[in-house]
Design a protein that fits this description.
The protein has 132 residues and is α+β, with helices and mostly antiparallel strands. The protein is 36% helix and 23% strand. The chain has a five-stranded antiparallel beta sheet. It is globular and about 40 Å long.
């Protein structure tokens, strides 16, 4: 495993390519009734400008029922909501799924600890998506 920063992030390896990992994440979210709000293709944007970049895509998801209480508790958490998952390929061709931990977001923004369960499901979502 390459040396990946933690600084409030978790990184899970995926046995699938970037696109398949994204599809699997989307399927898990759909099964839970959590809307995907945006997909950002960083590597596609780079390619459009003639720049070379390994596959790197961001999935943004969430819902107001879970996020609004956090933003009421600490308005600055809106900088980090909705939740995001980055799916990317490293220089060796290994695929990773990276995301901010709920604990990091709570420490960063100071929302009530009792609201951690509102965003704690991100780990289960990622774990399910990368399961072989």
């Amino acid at each position: 495993m390459p040396e990946l920063p933690d600084k409030g992030m978790l990184h899970r390896s995926s046995p699938y390519c970037v696109d398949e990992t994204l599809e699997r994440l989307g399927a898990v979210l759909q099964s839970l009734g959590i809307p995907v709000l945006a997909r950002i293709d960083h590597s596609g944007g780079a390619a459009a400008l003639g720049l070379e970049m390994k596959p790197t895509k961001l999935l943004i998801f969430g819902n107001a029922k879970a996020g609004t209480p956090l933003m009421l508790s600490a308005p600055t958490v809106a900088l980090d909501l909705p939740l995001k998952v980055l799916v990317w390929e490293d220089a060796d061709g290994k695929v990773w799924v990276s995301y901010n931990t709920p604990q990091y977001l709570q420490e960063r923004h100071g929302f009530a600890e009792s609201l951690l369960p509102n965003i704690a499901g991100i780990r289960v979502i990622v774990d399910e998506a990368v399961r072989a």
